[in-house]
């Protein structure tokens, strides 16, 4: 079949929830992806922040291959070695206590939501608790995660949403305070908002939320699905601040390509879910957790966080130069290798031009050009990206 025929067949058989680019991706190596016609693309999207180790890392692929030959699935009725080791790594990296593996980011959010509700139920025996989420947030597409997502466009056709969710303004602590009451059981935020337009939390804001949560026995949940796993230069984005959340949700780069997520909870609430309260058939199976183990090992051996700090600083510098030179760019926002350029116009055209010239970038919030490169990129890759981008904006 030709490339064109594959795309037509896909359009015939997929539920049409994505307007895909007219490209069939075929293979990848390092920080480059190749389409089925052999065209090469520099990847500054990582499959939406997933492929943090790039493509074809031998240690990573070997780990998965050897696990496939051993055992792929056990169910959670039994222990399996990779899941145990991966839970330990996740707990140590986050400084929290206990982990629950899921298959996606949305499911990690669902679990965090249930844990928070259960914690509050144990506290006062009621089940009418409220959760404060942020405007312009994104937490996923399942009904619970969608209810927390501060985007009316995503929610409206699917109402009614689960009740008891209130929205505050990101980086506006007073707007959070105004919503807190005796029913509040959790406050959820992304330490750096992703889909909403690459907004890092102000120090006063995120630390202020921790303070409110401490005072009122409210759980602080950080959605680290996009900004976690090293993307900001710390393993988790909250570690850039002087706070420790009660629960974090992780996914995307947690498995660097295999579908895996997790929620990880601290001392206060990690025992509030008990046998029978929550479950998953696939979650944390040996296939995906063998990948998680390899990811943590490779991050350490290859000094990934160090690279994010170095190359991230260089990327910021180069982007700031671009902002100064180019009147179509309003400003840059971001942290580490999670960067956004706010453009004066919608970003669709720019992205199409970039893809045409062999550079993959994505959008956020309509007018933000979002850069989420693999965390292994070099300064040379940044120069290569800037040279292409210059011609597209
Ligand atoms: C992508 C994303 C999710 C949802 O993850 P899925 O794996 O697509 O379900 C949740 N939160 C944030 C911040 C995300 O970026």
TrEMBL record:
Pathway: Amino-acid biosynthesis; L-arginine biosynthesis; N(2)-acetyl-L-ornithine from L-glutamate: step 4/4
Matching Gene3D superfamilies: Aspartate Aminotransferase, domain 1, Type I PLP-dependent aspartate aminotransferase-like (Major domain)
Domain of life: Bacteria
E.C. code: 2.6.1.11
Protein name listed in UniProt: Acetylornithine aminotransferase
Originating species: Eubacterium segne
Binding residues for pyridoxal 5'-phosphate: 105-106, 138, 223-226, 281
Family membership noted in the UniProt record: Belongs to the class-III pyridoxal-phosphate-dependent aminotransferase family. ArgD subfamily.
Compartments in which it is found: Cytoplasm
Cofactor(s) essential for the protein: pyridoxal 5'-phosphate
Gene designation: argD
Residues reported to bind N(2)-acetyl-L-ornithine: 141, 280
Catalytic activity line of the entry: N(2)-acetyl-L-ornithine + 2-oxoglutarate = N-acetyl-L-glutamate 5-semialdehyde + L-glutamate
Subunit structure: Homodimer.
